[in-house]
Amino acid sequence: PDTDALLVRAYRAGDERAATGLVARHAASLGRYLYSSGAGPDEIDDYVQEAFFRAFSRLETWRGDASFRSWLFTIAGNLLKDEFRRRKGRRMISIDSRHDLAGSSDPAGELAVGDAETVIRRGLATLPRLQREVFLLRVEGAEYADIAVALGTTPGAARVHYHHAVRTLKELLR
Question: What is the domain range of residue 23?
Fold first, then answer.
């Protein structure tokens, strides 16, 4: 399979299909990241589209020192932060719906998962910004080195922020 760097190179050379490949590789996980970061379900497609639009229009600024994925997620995160500032408020952090986590044939399981979801949502909202962003990027599969570049920190600091976030969320679930 093509790597992101090869697809970017092809797009820069005029191959429009490379853009389709990049979108296919990253749109779903970018949508989950935006949803987890507080975007409403009805806004996700617009944010994903805008993030890709900004990425492709500024592709010459991507130097390759971070992965394309991390760079794209940074663009999307900044887009969302700008929108939250514009609204002068922040919504509650969302996580995957309980229907994805428990089958509808198990009402007791749905209740338990619903309670855990509420605790996690509240816990994510209380985490310091950097811990929350590191945690959400890591959950989406980003490597510590890429997270560090995206958030302007070191891989070691990103690892520490992630572990603090996990510990805090585990304590809330007890």
Answer: 1-94
